[in-house]
Batch of 2 targets.
Target 1
Amino acid sequence: MFDLSGARVLRTRGRDAFALIVKACRRDVPPARLYTKMKPQNITVDIENKAMQITWDDAHVSIYDFTYLRRACPCAECQPWKEGAGAPGEMPAAVRNAVGELKAVSDVQPIGGYAIQFLWASGHMYGIYTWDYLRAICPCGEHAGKT
Ligand SMILES: [Zn+2]
Ligand SMILES: [Zn+2]
């Protein structure tokens, strides 16, 4: 279990941190800068408090609110500009307003040792969250969604 006071802080900061992710997308950051090569040492999923904690191999700790993660879904449906549709960073309203809900810890599925996938209660499950992406969107005060 982890310190839930951190998760509470995240919830109040969530909106600002998310705006920063969108800005990062608009800046067209070269992929090399987003590539961190960090790996999680430990992932804790807290269904009750709707938060996931990653302890990285450099000992940094990231705490993500489920809704924050759902809205940051990197799939082409949620980030249509990846396929050339719409302006970069312009998410469909359904994504901006989506709520992240998971029914069980098993709704977080590891993918090939480099990513995880969320089986959201809404049925959405297309986003592949690589370690690099998760590290890049770390909402802590130090990173705040910046690379
Ligand atoms: Zn998606
Ligand atoms: Zn961080």
Note: The CA atoms of residues 16 and 144 lie 8 Å apart.
Target 2
Amino acid sequence: MDVLDLIKTEHRRIETLFSEIESTDKPHKLYDCFNQLFNGLNLYAEVEQQTLYPAIRRHCQDTQELIDAAQQEHHKAKQILEELEYLSPTSREFQQKIADLKDVIQHHVQAEENKLFDQVRECMSQEDREQLGSEFKAVKSKLQRYQVHSQVKRILDFRFYRLQGERGAEPLCRPSNSRADMQTNLLII
Ligand SMILES: [Fe+2]
């Protein structure tokens, strides 16, 4: 499959998660959607940086500035995600930071789909893009395997979260270090 189509699918999935977060005020749903957004965005950024961007830099000389800007946006998005972890999902600050994150991602997605992808189609053949698509899927599967153990921890996190809520405490998005584990695993690959 063409790598550009795979990435568009990732973009639509992320946009759906933003819509779900915006359309609910239920703490458990917010917590669940944020977990998916956190893992999904970190995975997406990592896979792009390991596969797509190096390939584009090799094949398309005129895209260096666009790739630099895209990488800066990944970095900014990761920073905001880390800040969100220390907030309550029902707080105003959480809503504001989710809006900031959405702005960064919207700009990023538009730049990729409206500018970068056109240039990639000109300098990479369909065959090259399909080969890159296979690499994209393989790296994504490999990185996802490192997330599996944290899935179990997240179920425990969720129970802990509910317990905190029942006791009247204001639970944060990060009730344990499960996501920090995932980040570490991504970094050591
Ligand atoms: Fe990207």
Note: The chain has one domain: 3-188.
